Each structure stands twice: as C-alpha cells, then as structure tokens.
C-alpha cells in the first residue's frame, strides 16, 4: 500500500511517498516518479513517511534517477527514516543517488 | 511477522529487515523460480534462537537455485550501468549470516540467521 501526493514548492515538484515501496507498489511508484521528472526539471521525493522499502522499491528510485539524468533534470531523495536510509546505503545507492536529510525547498 | 516480532520483543528495525528478506526470497521464487500459480509453493519458518538471533528457513518448490552461489550485484557501478537485478539477493546477504542452501527432492531450502544484538549495537 502506497500513497503518493504531489505539490509544487519554490520551483521543486515534491512527491510525498507514504507507506510501503515493495514488489506490490513499485510499479505505481515508478510511474508517478517518472511522470514527475518528465514534467518538472527539479523533483524531490519526500520519504519522511515511507515505512518500508525493498529492492523492488529501490529500482523505482534508480529508474527515476536515470530518467532525470537523461533529461538533465534534478532528482533528490529526501528525509528517509534511518531504517529506509540503511537499505539505500547497503545497496550502494548513497554513492550514485542524491540523498539528503531534508527537503531542498 | 508483526505477531512474531512482538511476541519475541524484537526491535522495529529487525521486523523491517526480516520482512524485506522474506519479500526478496518470495518474489525471486515466484518471478524467477517458476513458483507462480503453484499451490503451497513456499513455506517459511521463523525461530527466535537463544543467542539473540532469528533463524529463517525458507523453502520453495521452484527450479533449483542456490542463492549462496549467485554472482554478487555490482553495487559500485555508476547509475547508467546499474543492473536492475541482483539487488534483492545482495540485501539478503547483507542482512543475514550463515546462509546455507540445500536441495531436497523438489524443494530449495535456505537457512539463515539474523543477529538481533549486533543490529542494536549499530543503531
């Protein structure tokens, strides 16, 4: 179960991701994030209310970052909880994705 | 899983990681092992051992697949070269220790341990 909401703040499209990013919800997550980077040059995913992420969820973030990079757009992953952050770190994604403690706007 | 973790007073992060490990194993068995549509395709047993560790036994009736022999995901690859596959197995190996595989008849059987104490120290 995942809830996605979108708002624009100071030139950033902020996508709030709540719930679980797992094998069941990953496609919905990727579709929403990719649409956001296609329509906005600066996108931030707010993970402060993301309770769980598995490799399927990580892939959605990786594919979105790739899509943003190919369009020379910015994609920031913001405010993950310590447990979620640890899954990103264990996967080496802290080296290739822009992960930050707070929102850029 | 929620009941198991609360019955054994396990921390929330342990519950998170055990959920993740079981999801990765189950999804692999369905998507790559041919377990989709099979009745009673997988069987999971959880035990809280005396050494402050959780033992998982995961059985599935998919094609023979030895997770311990699978190639490691290249987690140092740049974004453009990142392969989509292998990340789940990589996470299982990161979160679990003493991972062992055997094939018994039509079953793949994986056993592994998750250290609870070690994890609390690193929090």
Describe this protein's structure.
- The complex is a heterodimer of chains A (105) and B (123).
- Chain A has 105 residues and is an alpha/beta fold.
- Chain A has a single domain, classed as STAS domain (Transcription Regulator spoIIAA), CATH 3.30.750.24.
- Chain A contains 3 helices and 6 strands, in the order ββαββαβαβ.
- In chain A, strands 1, 2, 3, 4, 5 and 6 form a 6-stranded mixed β-sheet that branches.
- In chain A, strand 2, helix 1 and strand 3 (42-46) form a beta-alpha-beta unit.
- The radius of gyration of chain A is 12 Å and the shape is globular.
- By secondary structure, chain B is an alpha+beta fold.
- Chain B has one domain: Heat Shock Protein 90 (2-Layer Sandwich), CATH 3.30.565.
- Chain B contains 4 helices and 4 strands; from the N terminus they run ααββαββα.
- Chain B has helices spanning 2-7, 12-31, 87-95, 116-122, and strands at residues 42-49, 53-60, 97-104, 107-115.
- Chain B has a 4-stranded antiparallel β-sheet.
- In chain B, strand 3 (97-104) and strand 4 form a beta hairpin.
- The longest helix of chain B is centred in the N-terminal third of the chain and has 20 residues, at 12-31.
- The interface between A and B is medium-sized, with 24 and 24 residues.
């Amino acid at each position: 179960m995942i809830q996605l909401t979108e708002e624009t703040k100071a030139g950033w499209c902020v996508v709030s991701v709540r719930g679980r990013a797992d094998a069941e919800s990953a496609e919905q997550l990727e579709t929403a994030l990719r649409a956001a980077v296609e329509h906005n040059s600066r996108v931030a995913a707010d993970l402060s209310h993301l309770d769980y992420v598995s490799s399927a969820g990580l892939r959605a973030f990786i594919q979105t970052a790739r899509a943003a990079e190919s369009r020379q757009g910015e994609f920031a992953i913001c405010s993950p909880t310590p447990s979620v952050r640890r899954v990103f770190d264990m996967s080496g994604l802290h080296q290739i994705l822009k992960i930050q403690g707070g929102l850029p706007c | 899983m929620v009941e198991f973790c609360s019955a054994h007073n396990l921390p929330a992060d342990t519950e998170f990681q055990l959920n993740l490990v079981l999801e990765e194993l189950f999804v692999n068995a369905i998507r790559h092992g041919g377990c989709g549509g099979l009745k009673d395709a997988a069987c999971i047993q959880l035990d809280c051992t005396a050494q402050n560790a959780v033992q998982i036994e995961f059985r599935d009736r998919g094609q023979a697949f030895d997770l311990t022999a699978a190639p490691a995901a290249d987690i140092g690859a740049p974004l453009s070269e990142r392969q989509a596959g292998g990340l789940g197995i990589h996470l299982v190996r990161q979160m679990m220790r003493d991972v062992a595989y055997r094939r018994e008849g039509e079953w793949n059987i994986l056993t592994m341990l998750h250290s609870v104490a070690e994890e609390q120290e690193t929090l």
